[in-house]
Amino acid sequence: QVQLVESGGGSVQAGGSLRLSCAASGSISSFNSLAWYCQAPGKQRELVARITSGGSTNYADSVKGRFTISRDNANNTVALQMNSLKPEDTGVYYCNIRQLERLRWRDYWGQGTQVTVSS
Predict the structure, then answer these.
(1) In degrees rounded to 5, what are phi and psi of residue 87?
(2) What angle do CA 48, 16, 39 make, to 5 degrees?
(3) pLDDT digits (tens, 9 = 90+) for 49-96
(4) Helix (H) / strand (E) containing 19
(5) Cβ neighbours of residue 53 closer than 8 Å, sequence gap 6 or more
(6) Which positions ≥6 away from 17 have C-beta within 8 Å?
């Protein structure tokens, strides 16, 4: 089992910045990727950014150039720096780890942290 604990959400005006952090603990595999997803009101949870254990990243088109994902492998943490925030970035942000367990990929999720961007 893996536990994920997020922090750093809050309310900000458009154009502002927030930094989300997530700490993973438990049985963490060497082969994993860490990610942030966002679930906006009335919408499905969508990928915002992902980073592999090797440091490769991918971002949703809507956040490219504004958000940066980073990880600290030694401490099993992942962060999401969000700049130039827009009202459409509002939602609950979930930390995710996808890791290889017994030759199968498995997902674990944090409890979510609210981000609200006002215009």
Answers:
(1) -55, -30
(2) 30
(3) 999 999 999 999 999 999 999 999 999 999 999 999 999 999 999 999
(4) strand 18-26
(5) 30, 31, 32, 33, 71, 73
(6) 81, 82, 83, 84, 85
The CA distances from residue 61 to 6, 9, 28, 72, 76, in Å, are 23, 21, 29, 24, 26
* Cα distance between residue 106 and residue 43, in whole Å: 23
Do 41 and 33 contact (CB within 8 A), yes or no? no
By C-alpha distance, which of 107, 94, 110, 78 is closest to 40? 94
Report strand pairing: 10-13 vs 2-7.
unpaired
pLDDT(29) > 90: no
Residue 91's nearest CA partner among 21, 44, 23 is 44
Distances (CA, A) of 105 to 80, 99, 108: 23, 5, 10
